[in-house]
Please model this.
Amino acid sequence: MVFAFDLDDTLYTEMDFVRSGYRAVSRELERTSGLDADTYYQGICARRPVGFEWALEQYHSHGGSDSQMSVEHMIELYRGHTPDIALRPGARDTLEALGRAGHTLVLVTDGSTRHQRSKIRALDIEKYFDDILISEETGGDKTTDIPWKRVEERFGAPGQRFIYVGDNISKDFYLPGIRGWRTVMMRDREGVNVFAQHIADWPPQYRPRIVADDYSTLLNLK
Ligand SMILES: [Mg+2]
Model:
């Protein structure tokens, strides 16, 4: 079987990436001003989405010495930071078990090369995948045929079965579903996902075939 995985909020928690970026920016602000990183961090989190604007005011009123500091520079620091993130419990064991069982593993994720590659590096997961499709590199996100077709063309064989494992009901299950893939939604049991999973609000064709509470469900698919 071909198991294709989403990345954000499927294999790790996306808000952890956001917080890790805020911490990196906060450490840099602390380095050249009289306010501590924790105060910056708490303030930036509490004031989303205008946390950086607030932090810049604090920076100036606490003797910030870097004249180049700006919201744009903070965004740049955020984008370029080395993320401090971890796979969700059970994800690594399952990726390894699926690989050992001889299945093909693919990553299909939307986003920029820079962000997605830095997450993949931080999570140390590149080694598990036979192919990694990032929308900026393939030229089409999950709302287009591009990633699905590429996986089918590369790994298709008579009788081959395709499975997509994701979290986001607005785009993760509709297209693979109508192409005949099985779709699995990893349930957001702690309510931490960026995109909330209100399945009943969506038309049936958007919904996943299977809702999984943990990754081990994937090991039992026939
Ligand atoms: Mg996702």
